[in-house]
Design brief:
Layout: E1 3-5, E2 27-42, E3 49-55, E4 61-67, H1 71-75, E5 89-97, E6 103-105, E7 108-113, E8 118-121, E9 149-152, H2 169-176, H3 193-198, E10 204-208, E11 212-217, E12 223-228, E13 246-252, E14 255-261, E15 280-291, E16 294-304, E17 313-321
Parallel strand pairs: 4-6, 12-13
Antiparallel strand pairs: 1-2, 2-3, 2-5, 3-4, 5-7, 7-8, 9-10, 9-17, 10-11, 11-12, 13-14, 14-15, 15-16, 16-17
Length: 338
């Protein structure tokens, strides 16, 4: 089995914390290189996963798993569903697993000629041609603000830093002992509302109806159906505390307002910053003036949590309209056990 420890950090995916959990939850600091034959390639969110077989010096075959960034991110770098196929011989360089299981992060991946060890190519190709934002009317025909459509960040980076929470003493005590390995998203549990709606760098899709608005998220695959204040109370009956809570919507001028209660305690992102089950949120969605052929949607979320925050906390993002944008399916897989 070819496993080579690197002396330098290979950084193609090294800072991959934009996925559903921090890579520090699964991978340690040792950087290794592993070669083998692809058995399965999963081009999906929240992370691209490849299973490949490695033959050791003793002739024993071991099934390895390599985990990369979200397929949404990799598609923008030219990766596709067929970029890697069963039978490809690959060389993967990345961080080894924390628990000693046969896993490596996908910091760098190359196609190799197994007869001589030469690099013969890398995944990727034509970059996603839907990167350019397009126009969408600012208002619907009835005068309501037009927030319908798929919206995606064009610039790299996250929304307002979700690690900067104004924590009180209770929140700081939890943050002081936070370890990424305890993040429930490592085991593919549903994310909380703040993490899903405010901290995601990935696309969202909104669809407006007379009595409700439906919000779908590409990163975790969550879907919210939020009814308006004047909708039948039968569809707004509380189901107790849930990850996404109980939400109601209303229009105020050219803004869509969504207020949410009954939220389970949950982390706000890969950096921790746990919120308590006393959390309530107010989301405000509003369109910006079209500029240079680009239509954008902004969202401000005011987060109130007397349990873990010393004051209200505001997270914001702006995303751009993309016509006919296709979501990538979510197929979350937990890390391999030792």
């Amino acid at each position: 089995m070819r496993i080579i420890f690197c002396l330098m950090f290979c950084s193609f995916f090294a800072s991959a914390s934009f996925g559903h959990h921090s890579f520090a939850a699964t991978f340690g600091n040792d950087v290794i290189t592993v070669e083998g034959v692809v058995e399965e390639y999963r081009f999906s969110n929240p992370h691209v996963i490849i299973y490949f077989n490695v033959i050791g010096e003793d002739g024993i075959k071991t099934r390895w798993m390599t985990e990369g960034q979200a397929a949404t991110t990799m598609r923008r770098r030219g990766w596709k569903k067929d970029s890697i196929v069963e039978g490809d011989y690959i060389r993967v360089t990345g961080n080894s697993s924390r628990n000693g299981s046969p896993m490596v992060s996908t910091d760098n991946l190359e196609f190799i000629d197994p007869s001589n060890g030469n690099v013969i190519g890398v995944p990727g190709g034509e970059v996603d041609n839907k990167e350019v934002a397009t126009l969408a009317p600012l208002q619907m025909t009835d005068g309501r603000p037009n927030v319908t459509g798929a919206w995606r960040r064009i610039a790299s980076g996250r929304p307002d830093d979700p690690s900067g929470a104004p924590l009180n003493a209770a929140g700081k005590a939890l943050q002081d002992v936070f370890d990424p390995i305890i993040d429930p998203q490592v085991q593919c549990e549903p994310p909380g509302l703040v993490r899903q709606a405010a901290a995601t760098p990935h696309p969202v899709r909104l669809t407006q109806y007379d009595d409700r608005v439906v919000i779908a998220y590409e990163e975790y695959g969550s879907v919210r159906t939020v009814y308006f204040d004047d909708a039948s109370t039968d569809v707004n009956v509380s189901e107790g505390l849930t990850a996404l809570g109980e939400s109601k919507a209303r229009y105020e001028g050219q803004k869509l307002i969504i207020e949410t209660t009954n939220l389970l305690a949950n982390l706000t992102g890969t950096n921790g910053n746990a919120l308590s089950d006393q959390t309530t949120t107010v989301e405000t969605y509003y369109r910006n003036q079209d500029d240079k052929g680009m239509s954008s949607l902004s969202m401000d979320m005011v987060i109130t949590d007397p349990g873990h925050l010393s004051e209200s906390w505001v997270l914001s993002w702006t995303k751009f309209y993309l016509d006919d944008y296709e979501f990538i399916a979510v197929d979350c897989l937990p890390p391999l056990s030792h």
